């Protein structure tokens, strides 16, 4: 590891001691005496963070004459994915092309010249998309901007080239789906006439990706004050551009990884801890780097991808992609166990930054702490197993391990969320994680971070509500809509979507509508249990408030004999044993009337009208829930103060201790009183919604590193508190 120029005095001596104790796995050089350095400037430039761009080159060339995309009026061809594919994905594939340009233009107009891209800047590192985004970055770099990339799990999707990749859902001019695969796929090898074969859809690994994007942080720029990797060693401890270029070679940026943990000098300690030998060890790339693009500003780009060798790993063929687990669910949980050299390096960088008064901004693709506003345990308890990708939430021990490095601030992405969280670890280290939202999803926005002084960071979130040309592709989707409406094939009927999305007038409105459809077409089935889905997709806000007050002995099984009271059934329940003292189903109407009076009183006390709660339709409710999961404070802004107030009434309306749900096996019994399942489950649902909408500030806020506090800078921000 490099020992850079440090300030003289006791602080520098302490930093050198830290470096000597916490060197990387490859560090066998002795510290070199520091040389004097001028103090860093009070204020370094602002940096824009644009996360999860998921760039697809909508005007790209497949280099296959059989399929050139869909002709457009301007003479170009659009190589785009279907609208159905977009509406069932947690990322847009097409419109984010325009959103990315809009974000760059906006940042440039604001005078920002440094832009960080914390991973998933492409769809899956395909040549068509990597080359496309490289052209755009080159265009804006020529205008004076600098870009700094950290890799995500979509770039690269695997550590080595995947010649078998492809997509099933490119749009044809007839409105149908077209399969486009790389030439190494089974379909292409079999010469399947239904498949377009092109290596523009292969997925590139580290070597090609870093080579093509070397100008955007992966390699040093001659103008940089400093550039290093976790493995850098500079002669005499003094930075040299020529040496940095040599040190930047990917062959020199490797570490050993094993199935059980980090290899190299960390292996012995790991084996002792596990009580067994490490297996399936191999060398792996690490594209992390530290750069000082202007004096005083340190950008720490952390490669937190962890591709763990799995049961299919073959030492004789170590580059075979099936020999590694994907990085998507690994995140910082696996960094701590399988890339321990990074923690040592981060510790050293953090100490040096503090000693030299550098304004340090660290970023990686993955969150470093709970990104669900500490609602993860509640979400696991109420939703289906694995819902909302809770496996990706960092463990407390992981967060503490990163905090223990002394790193003050980290910007992450991956989850496409807008949010903020902080922690003070057992040793008193204050650490803040800023979740930067995706440009390709509801709540599309980018972050601007600025050090106001050495201990105060200003964070602004810039929403992309207005994006020029966001609807350029809408006429092409019309052909898809017409085809699906005209087809009677079951597979096509299942893919029908609401054409109203093509009438949206802004990117903000488009992404809002997109998320309602994503919720309807995917999330409700994937995340919500049968009875919860029925309730969420059947009840409006008025009915929910009344149901929260309902006290009745009428059971779910009796609902069929009490039509017209509320739109629920016993369809999700198992048949139970009826009680001997059952009440008649007709009692439900009277009990519902009593509950309505109580609900009316709750609404009136809050200065609201019960009937107005009906404006929270089922589609609005479950859309709002999922939008708040993703966008936090930004979602409440879109709801408006009236709906926020209505939700606050609902959040406080449930019994303090709802009756327990009676089950038959793992299903609820149809002998549960009508209100019990809803009150039990939705008390938790609204509790989660409140937690998500009452989290740390996430729109415009300041971070006081010395005072260990995150403060809202927007006095008009809405909250469920």
Sheet-strand content, in percent, reads 5-15%
Biggest pleated sheet: 7 strands, mixed
Strand order of the largest sheet: 5-4-1-18-19-22-23
The total count of strands amounts to: 23
Number of helices: 23
Mean pLDDT: 93
- Envelope shape: globular
Task: Identify low-pLDDT runs.
Answer: 1-41
Report how far the terminal alpha carbons are from each other.
48 Å
Rg over CA atoms: 28 Å
**Which range best describes the helical content: under 10%, 10-25%, 25-40%, 40-55%, 55-70% or over 70%?**
25-40%
Q: What is the structural class?
A: alpha/beta
Please provide a written account of the structure.
The chain has a seven-stranded mixed β-sheet. With 721 residues, it is of the alpha/beta class. It has 23 helices and 23 strands. Strand 6 and strand 7 form a beta hairpin.
Topology:
Blueprint: H1 10-21, E1 47-49, E2 70-71, E3 77-78, H2 83-87, H3 96-109, E4 114-118, H4 127-141, E5 146-150, E6 166-171, E7 177-181, H5 186-189, E8 195-197, H6 206-212, H7 214-218, E9 226-228, H8 241-247, E10 254-257, H9 267-274, E11 282-285, E12 289-292, E13 297-301, H10 331-338, H11 340-355, E14 359-363, H12 376-382, H13 396-403, E15 409-412, E16 419-424, E17 430-435, E18 445-453, E19 456-463, H14 474-486, H15 490-493, H16 507-527, H17 530-536, H18 541-549, H19 587-605, H20 618-631, H21 633-639, H22 641-653, E20 663-664, E21 667-668, H23 675-692, E22 700-704, E23 709-712
Parallel strand pairs: 1-4, 4-5, 7-8, 13-14, 14-15, 15-17
Antiparallel strand pairs: 1-18, 2-3, 6-7, 9-12, 10-11, 12-13, 16-17, 18-19, 19-22, 20-21, 22-23
Helix pairs in contact: 1-11, 16-20, 18-19, 18-22, 20-21, 22-23
